[in-house]
Amino acid sequence: MKADLKGMDSHETEAWARGLGLEPYRARQLRQWLFKGLVSSFEEMTNLPKRLRADLTGKASLSVLEEVRVEVSRDGTRKYLFKIADGHLIESVLIAEGGHFTLCVSSQAGCAMDCRFCLTARQGLKRNLSASEIVDQVIQVRKAMDSPDRLTNIVFMGMGEPLANYEAVVKAIRNLISPEGMNFSHRKITLSTCGLVPGIKRLGKDVVVNLAVSLNAADDETRSFLMPVNKTYPLASLMAACRDFPLPNRRMITFEYVLAKDVNDSREDALRLAGLLSGIRAKVNLIPLNPHSATDMVPPSEDRVLGFQEILIKKNFTTIIRKSKGQDISAACGQLSGRYG
Ligand code: SAH
């Protein structure tokens, strides 16, 4: 088996290099080329001796994703379809926001959470992604960009439930954040979860990142109908974990709320949501439901969405309506299927 370098942290890379009789500075050079040089072959690592390059080629793998297709939306959003080693397909979405870019990465092929409004859920869980498969999404996309440095934000909001693939996700985050990794600011990395309470507790202890919680309803009955995970971790336990989540200075937890017509979009729902969030440093992202073939739910009218927002704003919550980007190429929230053709 070849060594999986993008999935290793600096200590593991050093240990591996030591096993080959290499000095620690070689491990640092390797990581530089992988995470900053964005190379796809050992041949490009020009400060390594030629013989070593050839030797490493047989011993370690570099890119673990195969780009299958890139689709470009009318609004500029780009959807990357990647094939992973055993043939499953995953997607990453690059979104332009003013002068910078956000990449929405997948953490699993498919998903086991079975949320009623989400298309990824319909395929079930294929498998967890490895840390290198997660980091490689960022590397491959950066490499394809004219100005790679303009990719500043990473959101774990693609396919899968990141906290159901905890170890690999945290490892990937560490390689994204570490200065001798990709050197992203931890302020610019957001993990979004459907509400796996034990994972939220662990995350708060292990790594500093932004937390987003897909809430989608403010009462247990509606939430359990939309998101089966709520039967295991009902709102009381979820909100307690959010209250305890350590937040650095002025940081807030983002609560995502997909608005579905006549399901969770009433005035009472908005007031209940404000009540549920009271006392939490929270901001709210409202996402009018993106329709797709596997749901009969539809988004509310624009007026109703604005009305819902207004109630939350009156209660002093920063509330934005997330504009759905990339709808024409099925790249919007809940529309990732990893289907080809
Ligand atoms: N599993 C994680 C990461 C996926 S994020 C999580 O649940 O947070 C995907 C986001 O898209 C979630 O906030 C989810 O609520 C939202 N979403 C899913 N299906 C959607 C749809 N059809 N329309 C709009 N948003 C949707």
Write the SSE topology.
Layout: E1 3-4, H1 10-19, H2 24-36, H3 50-59, E2 60-61, E3 66-72, E4 78-83, E5 89-97, E6 100-104, E7 108-110, E8 125-128, H4 131-144, E9 151-156, H5 166-177, E10 189-193, H6 197-206, E11 210-214, H7 220-226, H8 229-232, H9 235-244, E12 253-259, H10 267-277, E13 282-288, H11 302-314, E14 318-321
Parallel strand pairs: 1-2, 6-9, 9-10, 10-11, 11-12, 12-13, 13-14
Antiparallel strand pairs: 3-4, 4-5, 5-6, 7-8
Written description of the protein model:
With 341 residues, this protein is an alpha/beta fold. The chain folds into 2 domains: 3-61, Orthogonal Bundle (DNA polymerase, domain 1), CATH 1.10.150.530; 66-329, Aldolase class I (TIM Barrel, Alpha-Beta Barrel). Helix content is 33%, strand content 21%. The chain contains 11 helices and 14 strands. The strands form 3 sheets. A 10-stranded mixed beta sheet has the order 3-4-5-6-9-10-11-12-13-14, with helices on one face. Helix 1 (10-19) packs across helix 2 (24-36) and helix 4 crosses helix 5. The radius of gyration is 21 Å and the shape is elongated. The structure holds S-adenosyl-L-homocysteine. S-adenosyl-L-homocysteine binds next to strand 10 and strand 12.
